[in-house]
Each structure stands twice: as C-alpha cells, then as structure tokens.
Amino acid sequence: MKKFNVIFVSLLLLCVSTNAYSTSFYMGRHTSTSVELYKWDWDGNSTFTNSEHANSFNLGTNWRNYTVGMTFGPDNKFYMGRETSTSVELYRWDWDGNDTFTNPEHVNSFNLGLNWRNYTIGMAFGPDNKFYMGRETSTSVELYKWDWDGNDTFTNSEHVNSFDLGLEWRNYTVGMTFGPDNKFYMGRNTSTSVELYKWDWDGNDTFTNSEHVNSFTLGREWRNYTIGMTSYPIAVPEPATILLSLISVVGIFIRKRRR
Question: Which of 20, 195, 250, 251 gives a 20 to 30 Å CA spacing to 229?
Fold first, then answer.
C-alpha cells in the first residue's frame, strides 16, 4: 500500500510542477487604412512560432498613426486605444476566441493632458484586474494603473513605476502586456525588428530582473508602425492532463485494494 501511495503523491507533485498552458501572442501594425493584427504561438518562455494574420480592423483615418495599444480584458473582450489631441479613447470588441472581432463600442475617455499626447505607448489589463497604461518621457517609460469596475468605469489613477530604459527606447516603445507567467513584457522597435523584454513583477509596484526575450524580425513594413502587443492564455491538453488521468487510475486501483 505504501508503494502505491508514493506513486500517487509523486505523480501529483509532478503534475503541479508541469506547465499547463500555452499562449497566443498578438502584435498589431498600422497601414494607411487599417490596423492589422497578427498572432504567434508562444511556449510561455522565449519561443514564438507559426505567425499568422488574425484580423484587419478597418478603422478609418482617425486611427491612422494614433492607435496606442491593445489588450485582452478579463471579460474576454479585445480592447484598443487611440489618441486624440486631448485624450486617450478606449474601445472594445467582442471576440469569438479565434479571429473574429465584432460589435465595437466606445468604453471610456481618459482625459490625461498634453503630457500623454503622442507619448502613450501601450495598455494592458493585469492579473490583478487593474488597467495599466504607459507613456514615454525624454528619459523613461512611466507606468500608471486604474481600478476597473468590469464595465466602463476606471478610477483611482496612480503612478506605478518609472522604467529608466535609455535613449534607445525613446520614441520606440511599442506595447506592453502581462504574460500568463505573471511577468511584465514591453517591446521596442529597431530599424529591423521588434525586441521583446520582460521583467519580474511582485504583484504591486516593483519590476526587477529585466531580460531580453525575443527578436521579431518583421521587415520594414513594421518599422515605426507597430502599435501594440498582448497575449492570451489558452488551456490545452498537455502532459499535466495525462498525469491527472494516471493519478485517477492509481487512485481507483488503491481503493480496490483496500476493499
């Protein structure tokens, strides 16, 4: 009996330690008439494969050069923002979980002042269900967060962190997202690529251990036109599922031996 108990516990611990998710990673870029959304399979670490076009958002000239971020919300809707001369306007779409985005609606106007005009560089919902936006200064990326009521109300704005990233990030920060690993990601344009970095996050206001994740060599059509990034966790059968099945079998066998 002890032998079977040891097997059962070992399988349970192995299951808990097994990575049980895969993720889709999305980036968008401007054209003269639309926002083009692309996605990659992501292993949750540093590998991004199977790039494919996901959707064309034909949004009109009001969005051209003014789209400032994208994110999936905790409500499984897709959000994008655009700058005006005085605000950031937030919109959302229903999403079918694949490549169809419907029913666009205006969500909120963030009247943030001239400090944000032309400097908003991304948005993301965090694992804490708060809403985050960033803006560039001459020397840093400043991150802010808002409480969100799950619908259209954003309150209690507060400054979260200053990322002193150097001149190579100035005017080139192109998006932010929280990954399913609860790390914080930001990207920047170079002349030939989008460079993705990540930080450890303590769940509050501290971001540490910056490291380079991946280089997306996307061509000149992305240069200066990348307008956001986001990720979406997807539950898929992975080794943990198999282990759970084995645990069930072992448990049934143990119960039979006890009878």
Answer: 20
Neighbours of 99 (CB within 10 A): 12
Residue 105, burial from CB neighbour count under 10 angstroms (0-12, 13-18, 19+)? exposed
**Interval 187-246: pLDDT, tens:** 988 888 899 999 999 998 999 999 999 999 988 778 778 889 999 864 444 444 444 444
Please state the domain extents for the chain. 1-20+239-259, 21-234
Residue 235 has phi, psi (to 5 degrees) of -80, 125
Question: Residue by residue, what is the 3-state secondary structure of the chain?
Answer: CHHHHHHHHHHHHHHHHCCCCEEEEEEEEECCCCEEEEEEEECCCCCEEEEEEEEEECCCCCCCCCEEEEEECCCCCEEEEEECCCCEEEEEEEECCCCCEEEEEEEEEECCCCCCCCCEEEEEECCCCCEEEEEECCCCEEEEEEEECCCCCEEEEEEEEEECCCHHHCCCEEEEEECCCCCEEEEEECCCCEEEEEEEECCCCCEEEEEEEEEECCCHHHCCCEEEEEEEEECCCCHHHHHHHHHHHHHHHHHHHHC
Instruction: Give the fold, CATH level 3, of 21-234.
Output: Neuraminidase (2.120.10)
